[in-house]
Amino acid sequence: MKKLWLWPPVYFLRQGLTLYFDCRLAQAAACFAYCVLLTIFPVLICVSSALGMANIDVATVITQFEPFLPDIALDAISSYLRYLTYHQGTGLLVAGIIACWFSASAAYRTIARVMADVFRTPSQSILRDLIASIIFPVGLLVALDISVVVVVTGQNTLDFLAGKLPFLGQFLALWGWLRYVLLFAIFFLFILAILLMAAPRGTLRRPLMVSSLFATLALVVSSAVFSWFIGLSSRYSLVYGSLVSIIVLLVWLYLCGNILFLAIAFTGVWHRDRSK
After folding, report:
1. I need a surface site. Which of 38, 63, 77, 127 has the fewest CB within 10 A?
2. In the chain, at which residue ranges do the beta strands (DSSP E only) sit?
3. Cα gap 82→48, rounded to integer Å
4. Contact 105, 133 (CB under 8 A)
5. Residue 17 contacts by C-beta under 8 Å, 6 or more apart in sequence?
6. Cα(263)–Cα(269) distance, integer angstroms
7. Is 120 left (phi over 0), alpha (psi -120 to 50) or beta?
8. For residue 69, which of 193, 225, 257, 209 has the smallest C-alpha distance?
9. Measuring CA to CA, how many Å separate 216 from each of 185, 191, 220, 253?
10. What's the predicted TM-score (pTM) here?
């Protein structure tokens, strides 16, 4: 039993979980979920503007995310996007960008604070933290707009290219799977960029890359399982009433925050052991 307790994989798991609870990352995940929840609807304003410029139907976008989000949350997002379709304007877009900047910056500062606690290092300089807080909302909007536009218009692009280059016709049937690979790559690069920005100076890059990869995998799998679990019952509205969509979104974001911070905790253990 003692050998199993000291076995390197078990030891690594114990150290990561100990660090997770010592740094109170569950509470940090709740703060992160709240900040991201405040970010979602301003982001949807910006995404709606991008959809309008690309002439993309809202229903087409929603179908791309059905495997990962519960139907209740998708209905709320879809209704909000349809509302924005008929109420677009410059003032609304500016307000969405400003609100997105404030709430997304708060979410990034939560990640940076978790990084500082896990790695036992002082916080970053005020200037670097300010620059990263500005870059994070911009990167979030760019990543979402690129993923939505590229994934949704990918089929049309392939159809056009297949008309010019007939040998590409054999890849048309693969697009149903390739779009999810593309989404996975975009989110992996985005999470990696976040961890690289928030990590203290001198942090090993390999642990950050591996943690980002596993965090992205865990987020995709857990989101699909969560969506399936929520779909088993449609009676949540009896308990939460009209707030059911917000409650489900908040629980899902809390789950995602815990997964991300667990990845950061294990990165801290790996970095500490490698440094020794």
Report:
1. 127
2. none
3. 9
4. yes
5. 265
6. 10
7. left
8. 225
9. 9, 8, 6, 14
10. 0.79
